C-alpha cells in the first residue's frame, strides 16, 4: 500500500529551485533557477548543438546538415504558404518557436528516469507556454497596428457583413481574437500535461498491479504496460504535432496581421 | 496540480527564464543560424539551377553545331553529287560525240563500198550485155546464117535484159 501512496501523477510537474538559487530575486521578483529553467537551458543547448551540425554549409549536405535543412525548409515552406513572401522575416521567430517547443517536448519524454534523473517538460506549465503565446500575440498586435494602424480593426469585420450585423460580428470576432493567446498557450500546456499524467497513471497501474500479485499483474499491469508503449509512441507524435500547431497558428495569426484576411 | 498551486511562487522565475532562454534561442539560433541554413539551401538551389541552365545551353550549342555540321555535310554531298552528275553528263556527251564521228565515218565507208558495189554491178551488167550480144550474134550467124551488126545485137539484148 505504501507504493500506491507514493505515485502521485502530478508530482512530476513540481517546480523545484536548484543549486540553492531559491532566493535569487530581480526587482523583488523571485527568479530562482529551477528544474524548469534547467530544462529550458538544456533544450536551448541541445537545439544549438543540433543547429551547429547544419552550419557546415556544404554543397552536398551530410545527414545531419540534411536534417537541419529539412527542418528549416519545413518552417520556411509553412511561412511562405501561410503568409506569403512577407513570411520570410518571421522565419527566425517561428523557427525558434517551433524548434524550441519541439525539443522541449521531446526531451521531456526521454526515459531518463532509468538512470535516476528526471526530465522536466516545461511546456506542461502554462507559465512557460503562456510567455510564448503572449509573445506571438504581441507580435501580431505590433505588426498589425504598425502596418495598418486603426484599419487593423477591420480584421474584426469580415467582408460582406450586412450593416446591422457589424456591431455583433465585431464583438464576436474581437472576443475570438482576444482568446487566441489563451488557446495557443493552453493547448500546448494541456496536451503535454495530459500525456505525461496518462503515462504516470498507467505506470502506477503497472507497479500497483505487480505489487498486488501475479493475478493482478496479468490482469492490470501487462495490458497497462502495452498501452503505455503505444501511448509513448503517441506522445512522441503529439510532441511534434503540438510544436507544429503552435508554429502554424502563430504563422496564421501573423498572416492576419500582415494581410487582414 | 503544481502548475496552479505553485503559481504564485514560481511565475516570476518561469517567465524570467523563459524570456532569457528563449531570447537566447531566438538571437543565436533563429537570427544567427536559421538564415544561414536557408542561405546555404538557396545557394545550392541556385547552383543547381545555374548548372542545369549551363547544361541546357551546352546541349543547345551542341545541337546547333550538330545541325550546322549536318547542313554542311548535306551541302557537300549535294555538291559532290552535282559534280558527279556533271562528270557523267560530260562523259556521256563525249561518248556521244565520238560515237557520232565513228558513225559518220562508218556510214561514209559503207556509202563508198555501196558505190563500188554498184559500179561493179553496172560493169558486170555491161559485160554480160556485151557477152550476150556477141553470143546472140554468134548464134544468129550459126543458126540462121545472118550477120547481125554488133550494135543491133546489143540493142536487142538490152531490150530483152531490161525488158
UniProtKB/TrEMBL annotation, chain A:
Transmembrane found in the keyword field: yes
Any GO CC annotation of this UniProt entry: proton-transporting ATP synthase complex
InterPro entries: ATP_synth_F0_asu, ATP_synth_F0_asu_bact/mt, F0_ATP_A_sf
Main location class: membrane
Localization annotation: Cell membrane; Membrane
Keywords attached to this entry: ATP synthesis, Cell membrane, CF(0), Hydrogen ion transport, Ion transport, Membrane, Transmembrane, Transmembrane helix, Transport
One annotated GO molecular function: proton-transporting ATP synthase activity, rotational mechanism
Top-level taxon in the UniProt lineage: Bacteria
Membrane topology label: Multi-pass membrane protein
A Pfam family annotated for this UniProt entry: ATP-synt_A
Protein name from the UniProt record: ATP synthase subunit a
Gene expressing this chain: atpB
From TrEMBL, chain B:
Chief location category: membrane
Membrane topology of this protein: Single-pass membrane protein
Bilayer-crossing regions: 15-34
Oligomeric form and interacting partners: F-type ATPases have 2 components, F(1) - the catalytic core - and F(0) - the membrane proton channel. F(1) has five subunits: alpha(3), beta(3), gamma(1), delta(1), epsilon(1). F(0) has three main subunits: a(1), b(2) and c(10-14). The alpha and beta chains form an alternating ring which encloses part of the gamma chain. F(1) is attached to F(0) by a central stalk formed by the gamma and epsilon chains, while a peripheral stalk is formed by the delta and b chains.
Summary of the function given for this chain in its UniProt record: Component of the F(0) channel, it forms part of the peripheral stalk, linking F(1) to F(0). The b'-subunit is a diverged and duplicated form of b found in plants and photosynthetic bacteria. F(1)F(0) ATP synthase produces ATP from ADP in the presence of a proton or sodium gradient. F-type ATPases consist of two structural domains, F(1) containing the extramembraneous catalytic core and F(0) containing the membrane proton channel, linked together by a central stalk and a peripheral stalk. During catalysis, ATP synthesis in the catalytic domain of F(1) is coupled via a rotary mechanism of the central stalk subunits to proton translocation.
A cellular component term, taken from the record's GO annotations: plasma membrane
Annotated organism of origin: Novosphingobium fuchskuhlense
Keyword Cell membrane listed: yes
Name of this protein: ATP synthase subunit b
Keywords: ATP synthesis, Cell membrane, CF(0), Hydrogen ion transport, Ion transport, Membrane, Transmembrane, Transmembrane helix, Transport
Amino acid at each position: 500500500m505504501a507504493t500506491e501512496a507514493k505515485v502521485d501523477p502530478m508530482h512530476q510537474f513540481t517546480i523545484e529551485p536548484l543549486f540553492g538559487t531559491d532566493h535569487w530575486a530581480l526587482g523583488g521578483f523571485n527568479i530562482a533557477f529551477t528544474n524548469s529553467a534547467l530544462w529550458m537551458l538544456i533544450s536551448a543547448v541541445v537545439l544549438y548543438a543540433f543547429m551547429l551540425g547544419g552550419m557546415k554549409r556544404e554543397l552536398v549536405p551530410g545527414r545531419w546538415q540534411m536534417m537541419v535543412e529539412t527542418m528549416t525548409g519545413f518552417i520556411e515552406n509553412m511561412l511562405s504558404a501561410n503568409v506569403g513572401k512577407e513570411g520570410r522575416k518571421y522565419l527566425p521567430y517561428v523557427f525558434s518557436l517551433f524548434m524550441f517547443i519541439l525539443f522541449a517536448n521531446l526531451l521531456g519524454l526521454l526515459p531518463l528516469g532509468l538512470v535516476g534523473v528526471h526530465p522536466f517538460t516545461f511546456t506542461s506549465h502554462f507559465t512557460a507556454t503562456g510567455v510564448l503565446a503572449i509573445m506571438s500575440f504581441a507580435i501580431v498586435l505590433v505588426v498589425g497596428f504598425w502596418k495598418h494602424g486603426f484599419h487593423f480593426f477591420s480584421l474584426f469585420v469580415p467582408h460582406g457583413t450586412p450593416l446591422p450585423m457589424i456591431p455583433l460580428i465585431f464583438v464576436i470576432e474581437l472576443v475570438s481574437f482576444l482568446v487566441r493567446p489563451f488557446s495557443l498557450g493552453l493547448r500546448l500546456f494541456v496536451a503535454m500535461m495530459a500525456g505525461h499524467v496518462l503515462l504516470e497513471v498507467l505506470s502506477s497501474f503497472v507497479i500497483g498491479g505487480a505489487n498486488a500479485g501475479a493475478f493482478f499483474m496479468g490482469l492490470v499491469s501487462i495490458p497497462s504496460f502495452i498501452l503505455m508503449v503505444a501511448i509513448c509512441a503517441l506522445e512522441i507524435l503529439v510532441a511534434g504535432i503540438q510544436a507544429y500547431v503552435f508554429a502554424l497558428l502563430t504563422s496564421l495569426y501573423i498572416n492576419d496581421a500582415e494581410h487582414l484576411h | 496540480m503544481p502548475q496552479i498551486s505553485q503559481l504564485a511562487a514560481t511565475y516570476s522565475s518561469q517567465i524570467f527564464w523563459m524570456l532569457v532562454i528563449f531570447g537566447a534561442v531566438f538571437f543565436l539560433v533563429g537570427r544567427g543560424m536559421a538564415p544561414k541554413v536557408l542561405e546555404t539551401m538557396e545557394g545550392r538551389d541556385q547552383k543547381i539551377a545555374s548548372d542545369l541552365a549551363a547544361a541546357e545551353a551546352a546541349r543547345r550549342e551542341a545541337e546547333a553545331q550538330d545541325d550546322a555540321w549536318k547542313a554542311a555535310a548535306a551541302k557537300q554531298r549535294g555538291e559532290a553529287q552535282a559534280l558527279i552528275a556533271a562528270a557523267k553528263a560530260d562523259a556521256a556527251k563525249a561518248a556521244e560525240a565520238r560515237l557520232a564521228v565513228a558513225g559518220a565515218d562508218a556510214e561514209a565507208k559503207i556509202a563508198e563500198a555501196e558505190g563500188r558495189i554498184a559500179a561493179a554491178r553496172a560493169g558486170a551488167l555491161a559485160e554480160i550485155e556485151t557477152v550476150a550480144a556477141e553470143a546472140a550474134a554468134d548464134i544468129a550467124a550459126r543458126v540462121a546464117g545472118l550477120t547481125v551488126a554488133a550494135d543491133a545485137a546489143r540493142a536487142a539484148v538490152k531490150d530483152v535484159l531490161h525488158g
